[in-house]
Amino acid sequence: MYDTLIIGSGPAGMTAALYAARSNLKVGIIEQGAPGGQMNNTFEIENYPGYDNISGPELSMKMYEPLEKFKVENIYGIVQKVEVDGDIKRVITEDASYEAKTIVLATGAKYRLLGVPGEEEYTSRGVSYCAVCDGAFFRDQDLLVVGGGDSAVEEAIYLTQFAKSVTIIHRRDELRAQKIIQDRAFANDKIHFIWDSVVKEIKGDETKVSGVLVENVKTGELSEHAFGGIFIYVGMNPASHMVSDLGITDENGWVITDTDMTTSVPGVFAIGDVRQKDLRQIATAVGEGAIAGQGVYHYITEHY
Ligand code: FAD
Ligand code: NAP
User: Which CATH number does the domain 2-110+236-303 belong to among 1.10.540.10, 3.30.70.270, 3.50.50.60, 2.60.120.620?
Assistant: First the structure.
């Protein structure tokens, strides 16, 4: 039995693992992909203290390396369910089951779909959710980015190094993105905006995307625009389906904790983007990971 099983090795989970392992606990971390979580899809990180500028994959490896030193056990698996049976917590993957005294849910969030006709059909044929992964396939093309948050605007700037032009379409007349990111986009000659408008349909031929049908939400006017690629950044949904039976989420699936990162189920902690909170950042994920790693230690010393 593990002292703690951490689900997800993004910045939150890796930090919780480091703190728990340094307290000499038996720690396992279950992950379905590469360590780093969303950081792996981030080209440049400029707001993580200690680094002027570091790539997401590089910061991921820097967080991962100490886990080996402190003998955190890496387990590959896609977690389907977390069961609580009194003091025993069970984590169930597609082909295995693991037991632990405590669980730390650090599963983060996943991009939200736009939900318009053509989106599913043209995914990977011109529709993408990851500029870092796919941007280089769209050299010298006119691209569309959907959304007005940090991700949309930052990734639009990133895409200008490949694209002929990048148009950001936003449903309001004001961006949600941080001011410093907005200013960079407004100063970039390759970036254009379509304000107060939404994509109604993604169009294409048999092989790939050719453009979009757009509606101006103020006037109701419809117009067609040609684009070679469409990048969708309209927010995130919590990856919390595995705890949906535990009664620890709000109506949108975000996990509710107190400031100690404990949920209403004793011995079940939640940290990082999966939590109900305002600021989803690497720095906040790491801070919450430290609190939970230490919280696990206190829980185990008090209960066992
Ligand atoms: P995540 O990073 O989402 O990691 C969760 C991990 O859990 C993943 O590895 C996932 O595979 C795993 N997981 C999920 N479900 C399961 C399951 N069922 N079974 C097993 N494993 C599972 N923040 C900044 O501070 N600065 C930035 O510059 C910045 N840029 C960003 C750019 C983009 C494009 C995006 C999308 C986000 C950016 N962010 C940035 C936000 C930041 O990346 C997140 O706040 C942070 O990664 C959250 O960390 P986390 O550990 O909570 O979750
Ligand atoms: P977000 O902040 O939730 O923004 C989503 C954007 O999409 C909003 O502008 C929203 O419009 C728009 N939108 C939502 N649903 C839509 C729909 N159906 N049709 C059209 N537009 C729609 O999400 P995010 O940008 O992915 O960021 C997620 C988190 O990661 C945030 O906490 C963010 O701060 C963080 N992040 C940080 C950085 C950084 O620090 N450098 C970089 C990237 C992400 P409205 O504005 O009208 O709501």
Answer: 3.50.50.60
pLDDT at 132 over 90: no
Kindly indicate the confidence band of residue 124, based on its pLDDT and cuts at 50, 70 and 90.
confident
Show Cβ contacts of residue 248 under 8 Å, excluding neighbours closer than 6 positions.
255, 256, 263, 264, 265, 268, 270
Say yes or no: CB of residue 57 within 6 Å of ligand 2: no
Query: 199: pLDDT confidence band, cut at 50, 70 and 90?
Result: very high
pTM of the model: 0.90
CB 79 near ligand 1, within 6 Å: yes
| CA neighbours closer than 13 Å in the CB half-sphere of residue 9 | 31
Nearest ligand 1 atom, CA 44: 28
Closest CA to 154 of 195, 188, 189: 188
Q: Please work out whether the CB of residue 100 comes within 6 Å of at least one atom of ligand 1.
A: no
Closest ligand relative to 156 C-alpha: 1
Centre of ligand 1 to C-alpha 1, Å, is: 27
Say if strands 236-238 and 109-111 run parallel, antiparallel, or are unpaired.
antiparallel
Question: Which of 5, 7, 29, 42 to mutate for ligand 1's pocket (most ligand atoms within 8 Å of CB)?
Answer: 42
In this predicted structure, the answer to whether residue 66 has a pLDDT above a threshold of 90 is yes
Average pLDDT for 95-110: 97
Mean pLDDT (the chain, rounded) = 96
Res 250: pLDDT: 98
Site of tokens 């990856």 = 239
Whether ligand 1 lies within 6 angstroms of the CB of 37 is answered as yes
Which residue lies with its CA nearest to atom 9 of ligand 1?
37
Nearest CA to ligand 1 atom 23: 281
